[in-house]
Amino acid sequence: MENKKANILVVDDTLANLELIESMLAEQGYDVRPFPKGKMALKAAFNDPPDLILLDIMMPEMDGYEVCRLLKEDEKLREIPVIFMSALTETIDKVKAFSTGGVDYVTKPVQFEEVFARVKTHLRLRQYQIDIEKKNRELQNTLHELRDAQAKLIQSEKMASLGVLTAGIAHEINNPVNFINASSRALKIKLSPVVTLLEQISREHESQKINDLIHQFKQDRSLKTLINAISELTSNICTGAERSIQIVKGLRTFSRLDEAEKKKAVIHENIDSTLVLLHSQYQNLISIKKEYGDIPDIICYPGKLNQVFLNFLKNAVDAIKSKEKLEQDESISIKTYVFEENNKKYVAVEISDTGTGIPENIMDRLFDPFFTTKDVGKGIGLGLSISLGIIESHGGKIDVKNKPGKGACFTMYIPCESSD
Ligand SMILES: Nc1ncnc2c1ncn2[C@@H]1O[C@H](COP(=O)(O)OP(=O)(O)O)[C@@H](O)[C@H]1O
Ligand SMILES: [Mg+2]
Fold first, then answer.
1. Which residues form a coiled coil (predicted)?
2. CA of 210 to the centre of ligand 1 (A)
C-alpha cells in the first residue's frame, strides 16, 4: 500500500472542508474520493473498497456513526480503518466513536500535519494487518500440507509393513488350507466304503440281508482303525479351518487401520491378531512369552494401535534375527498391566526381546522420522516415529530401555480413560 497510491475516501457535508482535505491528501500522492453524503460514500465503498476512510460525524440524513456501523456490518469493508472528524465546537462522544468501530479521530479545522500523520499510521497498521492475515493463511496452508504429507507417510509405512507381511500371510494361509485339502481327500477315500455300504443298506428291505452286509463290512476291515482315521482326519480339518479363520480375523483386525472413530477394544485380542500376522516371521526361531494382566478394555483407535503393536513386534523380531548367532531360547515377551501415575490410570504394554539391544549413542534418535539402522528395503525408519505419534494422540507415552541382560524393552502407556 505504501508503494502503490493508497485510496482514501473522505466524507464531509461541509464542502469547504471536503475540498481542503481532498487537495491536501492529493498533494501527498493519495488517491482521494470526496463525498458530501454518507449514503453516497457507502455506495462508493461497496463498489470499490478504499484503504482508509475519513468520516465527518455530524451530517444531515445519515451521521458518521451510522455510516461507520453499516461499514462494519459488511464482511468486505469491516477492516477498513475509519478516522472520525468532528468540529472543535461539537462535543464528540469518543466512546461511541470507538465503539462503532472508528480507529482514531481528528478535530476540525484540521491540522494538516496531524491528519497526515494519523492517515499514514493507520494505513501502515492496516498494511501490517493484511500482511499478518496473508502470513496466517500461508501458515494454515502449510499446516494442511504438512498434515497431508504426514497422513501419506503413515499410509506408506502401513503399506510397507503390510508388504513385508503379505508373503508371510500367503504362506500362513496356504498351510492350513493344504492341510484341510489333504485331510479331506484322505477322508473321502476312507469314507468311500462306508458310503457304498449305506447305499446297499438303503436298497435292502430285509433285516437279515442288512445284517449280513454289515457283518461282511466288519469282517473285511478293522473298524477300529477306520474310526480312528475318520476321527483324526475330521479333527485335522477342524484345526485347519480354525487356523484359517484366525488368520483371516487377524488380517481383518489389522486392516481396520483407517477407522476414524474411537472404539472400545480388547487390547489382548489386538495383540494376538497382530501376532498371527507375524507368525511366519518368528516361527521355529523365537518363542512368544505372554504375561497378560487383568486390564480393562480401552477406548482407542484399534487399527492404529495394531499398527503400533506390529511395529514393536516386527522391530523385536528384526533385532533378534540380526544377531550373529541365534540361541535356542530367543524370545519376545509381551506383558500387560495397569499402571497408575498422578491419579491417572494407564494400560501398559511392555514388549521386550532378546535381540541386539540398542546402542546408547542412538538412543536419542530412535523416534526421529527416517532414523533406521536397517539395510535399504528392510526398514524406512518411520515405525517408531509413527508409533509415538499414535500413542501420543491417545494421550499416552512410550518408554524405552535396554534390559540388563541383553535386548531392548519398549513400554507404551495408553490412558484407560479417553482424553476427549
Ligand atoms: N527392539 C529393538 N531392538 C534394537 N533396536 C531397535 C529395536 N526397535 C527399534 N530399534 C532401532 O530403532 C530404529 C528405528 O526403528 P523404526 O522406527 O521402527 O524403523 P525401522 O524398523 O524401519 O528401522 C531401528 O532401525 C533400530 O536401529
Ligand atoms: Mg520398524
1. 125-159
2. 71
